[in-house]
Design a protein that fits this description.
Elements: E1 2-5, H1 10-20, E2 23-25, E3 28-31, E4 37-40, E5 49-53, H2 60-76, E6 81-86, H3 105-115, E7 120-124, E8 142-145, H4 148-158, E9 165-168, H5 174-184, E10 187-190, E11 192-197, E12 200-204, E13 215-222, H6 226-237, E14 243-250, H7 256-262, E15 267-271, E16 279-281, H8 284-291
Parallel strand pairs: 1-2, 1-5, 5-6, 6-7, 7-8, 9-10, 9-13, 13-14, 14-15, 15-16
Antiparallel strand pairs: 3-4, 11-12
Helix pairs in contact: 1-8, 4-5
The structure holds ribose-5-phosphate.
Ribose-5-phosphate is lined by residues 170, 172-173, 201, 219-228.
């Protein structure tokens, strides 16, 4: 197998290739003066199984375009099997027409991935609450891997925890809280969130018993940090001891990280689906296992 490292996932691709002991290639990428992208695969892919790893984090349009060019190129120059690994899958939130006339963006990018001849797709914890099984939106085989247990492992490997409890900051985070809680054999719960604006949320606890306990708040995304900050505030109010903030995808818009730190998180950590300085947990073993 040959791994192609998209520019948004170069470190992760290296880690996956190392784990699988397989060849890694970095495409030649240039931007023309008019903004168009040039891509070239400097490797012989004829008859090979090729996996392209490219997150579609900021800037999503550019990163998607790079992915499409790479997928199409490897198929065109003779790869036997083409796998797209999109650790962070942008546009997943526009999975339906909320208002008449809207583009269903997720459907569009799915069609584009399929139309360039991709054989299989993997992603990690796609924001697919309404969809459930992502196979429903793809005609080709598609798998949504979960990194929640890896975040739980990082927590327990690095901290001596006092009666830990795992909390999802909203209903949609129930599955990550459950995944991490079950991995640690710890209690877990989730809270109820109402979004008041793009950066403002109101969070209400369900049945929180966190007094004197260490808590990890786990979410799929920290974007503006509003959700995480509110969750930390509530846990503090209810007497939690140390609070750890964890997410799969560190989107981190604006000064999100500063806000979460200021709210009193003992540590903030994420995976490398988006390569950030808080990406302390690699999803490479998860991806390597899946595509092996
Ligand atoms: C929402 O459904 C997501 O799971 C996250 O809770 C959300 O994207 C976090 O956004 P923010 O950091 O802006 O509150």
């Amino acid at each position: 197998m040959l791994i192609v490292a998209g520019s948004a996932s170069s470190k992760l691709a290296e880690r996956v290739a190392k784990q699988l002991k397989c060849e890694l290639t970095k495409p030649e990428l240039r931007r023309f003066p008019d903004g168009e992208l040039y891509a070239r695969i400097p490797a012989d892919v004829e008859g090979e199984d090729v996996a392209i790893i490219q997150s579609t984090c900021y800037p999503p349009n550019q990163n998607f375009m790079e992915l499409f060019l790479l997928l199409d190129a490897v198929r065109d120059i003779g790869a036997k099997k083409v796998t797209a690994i999109v650790p962070y899958f942008a546009y997943a939130r526009q999975d339906k027409r909320f208002k008449e006339g809207e583009a269903v963006s997720l459907q569009t990018v799915v069609k584009l991935i399929e139309s360039v001849g991709t054989d299989k797709v993997y992603t990690v914890d796609m924001h697919a609450h309404r969809i459930g099984d992502i196979q429903k939106i793809f005609k080709i085989p598609a798998q949504n891997l979960t990194a929640a247990p890896l975040l739980a492992k990082y927590l327990t490997d690095n901290y001596q925890l006092e009666d830990p409890v795992i909390i999802g900051p909203d209903e949609e985070a129930e599955r990550w809280a459950k995944g991490a809680g079950e991995f640690l054999d710890a209690d877990w719960d989730y809270m109820i969130k109402k979004r008041l604006g793009p950066e403002e949320v109101e969070i209400k606890p369900r049945k929180l018993e966190v007094e004197g306990r260490d808590a990890m708040v786990i979410d799929d995304i920290i974007s503006t940090g509003g959700t995480m900050v509110e969750a930390i505030k509530i846990l503090k109010k209810h007497g939690a001891r140390k609070i750890y903030a964890a997410c799969i995808h560190a989107v981190l818009a604006g000064d999100a990280l500063k806000k979460v730190r200021k709210a009193g998180a003992e540590d903030i950590f994420a995976t490398d689906t988006i390569e950030r300085n808080i990406s302390k947990v690699s999803v490479a073993p998860l991806i390597a296992d899946a595509i092996h």
